[in-house]
Amino acid sequence: MWDSFLGKRLKGCGYALKGALLLLRNEASIQVQAAIAVIMTFAGFYFEISTTEWMFQIFAIGLVLSIEGLNTAAEEIADFVHPDFHNKIGFIKDIAAGAVFFAAITAVIIGCIIYIPKL
Ligand SMILES: Nc1ncnc2c1ncn2[C@@H]1O[C@H](COP(=O)(O)OP(=O)(O)OP(=O)(O)O)[C@@H](O)[C@H]1O
């Protein structure tokens, strides 16, 4: 029983990893966010930010990448169920993008709080 339970969970992790790689390989918005994450990681080492600052920075990076990934999923579903122009599809895509906006603003504010005093 445990074998099949653990096997299923491991398989699930495999699909999730595959999804993360698909996002990184195919989605321009995720690639841009990932590039910013790499730059911010170098900045973190350069400015020798504290453990707490690292935690907030890593949390902000994870938040933006996660919401951006969900936004991509929402766009894909919208295009799949209704490939033609429709006001409702536009609304769905706009609010999904709005969710990314909230995450991005949060990350920018965290970045400003960490780095502005160090400049
Ligand atoms: N099928 C549609 N019906 C109505 N409005 C749409 C539709 N597709 C896109 N839009 C509008 O255009 C905006 C941008 O859509 P979308 O993100 O799919 O385009 P894109 O610029 O090609 O994005 P990406 O480059 O991330 O694929 C949406 O937020 C929405 O306002």
From TrEMBL:
Q: Does the keyword Magnesium apply?
A: yes
Q: Which residues bind a divalent metal cation?
A: E27, E75
Species per Swiss-Prot/TrEMBL record = Aequorivita lipolytica
Question: Cross-referenced CDD domains, in alphabetical order?
Answer: UDPK_IM_like
Q: What is its main location?
A: membrane
Name the family the entry cites.
Answer: Belongs to the bacterial diacylglycerol kinase family.
Co-factor binding comment: Mn(2+), Zn(2+), Cd(2+) and Co(2+) support activity to lesser extents.
Residue sites binding substrate per the record: E68
Which is a GO BP term held by this UniProt record?
phospholipid biosynthetic process
Highest taxon above the source species: Bacteria
Transmembrane ranges, per UniProt, are 28-48, 95-116
Q: Which GO terms describe its cellular component?
A: plasma membrane
For activity, the cofactor(s) needed are: Mg(2+)
Compartment annotation: Cell membrane
Name this polypeptide is given: Diacylglycerol kinase family protein
Which PANTHER family did the record assign? DIACYLGLYCEROL KINASE
* A GO molecular function held by the record: ATP binding
Binding residues annotated for ATP, in chain numbering = Y15, E27, E75, K93, D94
Active-site positions on this chain: E68 (proton acceptor)
